[in-house]
Amino acid sequence: MNTLDNTANTTVSWTRHVAVASLLGLIVLGLAWELWLAPIRPGGSWLALKVLPLCIPLAGLLKSRMYTYRWLSLLIWLYFTEGVVRAWSDQGLSAGLALLEVLLCLALFVACALHVRLRLHNAKVSAAAASATVTP
Questions:
Q1: Are 60 and 67 in contact (CB under 8 A)?
Q2: Binning pLDDT at 50, 70 and 90, where does residue 102 land?
Q3: How would you label 38-74 residue by residue, b for 16+ Cβ within 10 Å and e otherwise?
Q4: What does the H/E/C string look like for 81-103?
Q5: Tens of pLDDT along 81-99?
Q6: What is the chain's percent helix, strand, coil content, to nearest 5?
Q7: H/E segment holding residue 105
Q8: The pTM is what?
Q9: Which residues contact 131 (CB under 8 A, 6 or more apart)?
Q10: Mean per-residue pLDDT, 90-109
């Protein structure tokens, strides 16, 4: 059972790392996109402020708070939608950056969903094991 627990913990840790990396990637991409790489206006735009809501869940992900993973998996669809719309309507570098945003959003969503699912499953298995050892 110990090997199974280690594998489960490794997988949960892996999903956490993917989620944090994807979120940081989205923050860096959003800033670079709107300030330097392909801003809507020359010299940057106020649209760079769109990354501020992404900074809020970073602490919760780093502390492995289940609630943060749950609501972030819903919030991320706003950024996914922006990426799809801009990939379809923009041209050149901006369209490529939009596709990168879509891919990062998908990676973040999958990582959050797997993280929540695995942690709930592990909690259920642990509770069942605990009740089996207590019950005569």
A1: yes
A2: very high
A3: bbeeeeeeeebebbeebeebeebbeeeeeebbeebbe
A4: HHHHHHHHHCCCHHHHHHHHHHH
A5: 999 999 999 999 999 999 9
A6: 90, 0, 10
A7: helix 93-134
A8: 0.89
A9: none
A10: 97
pLDDT tens for residues 29-57?
A: 999 999 999 888 887 788 889 999 999 99
Tokens 């940081």 label which residue?
Answer: 24
Tell me how far apart the alpha carbons of residues 48 and 11 are, in angstroms, rounded to a whole number.
33
CA 62, 16, 110, 129 torsion-angle sign: negative
Q: How many angstroms separate the Cα of 70 from the Cα of each of 45, 94, 120?
A: 31, 30, 12
Q: How many percent of the chain have pLDDT more than 90?
A: 73
